[in-house]
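Extended Data, panel c. Modelled sequence:
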Amino acid sequence: MTTFFVGGAQRSGTTLLQGLLCSSEKTNPLIYECFLLQHIVDAYRRGRYNFDEFGPAYFNDIPAFQSFYSRVVGDYLDQTRARYAPAEHLVLKETNLTRVFHDVYDLVRDAKYIISVRDPRDVITSLIEVAEKLPERNVNKWFGGRDMKRLAGYYKGVYRSVLVAPDPTFRKNLLFVKHERLVSNPDDEVARISEFTGFPLSPEDGEAAWKRNEWDFDGMERFKITGWRSELWGKQMSTKNIGKFRGKLTDEELAILAEELSDVYHIFGYGDDDPAQATATFAAPHKATPTAQL
């Protein structure tokens, strides 16, 4: 049994990717994000960072502390798996976990990580649109406004730790999936994902990503998160939003992003006139990537 964690920046296609994986009968259906697990991992990170000051009163050493949190996370995953029996594998998503996947690796050694990547210009355009939809009192100030440097910092921060992670065992369990390639060339991308996961996935059904779904898209109002809902959820894969930044970001804003994200553009193959034609394939995600500047 393996746990697959889906990650990536918000608005990068993570829900579509999770849904596609959950179309396999070997997994749980598409379920809400694992916020509670994120909090557990955050507590582990804080405790490890401050271990010398607070930890020795409760644990013999850091390995004992890590073992404790491994059991907590293991119980969490077992509890979730039991709810969706007889599923063999779990597919979980929480975009904020992406930054700390290397910490998750400390606690769950047999997990695999599938990371969605989308043109940062489109991601940032979508984040701006989300902020415009939310009531003023609920606007996430981090994403509100059009501060390109701040938004670029968010995008870079999501992927930094996984790109620079030195552990080869962790890196060989990473798969990057380019959103533009998935929606424009699903046959090849789904085959690559199937090979990585061992799931018999097929792109033949355009709505496959939503056929095993426990999300209540129409009832999201009660969670006060309708601003985050995508118009494409529940529908066939579409190239409609590729290059959506055109006409929505100014030349000045694009210039700032080009400067702030020049390394990201290079690594992920963006910045071209047609982002769907970018060349990065991530066919060998375990190989070293020159990303020390991230």
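Strands lie at 3-8, 90-93, 112-117, 174-178. This feature is highlighted in the accompanying rendering.
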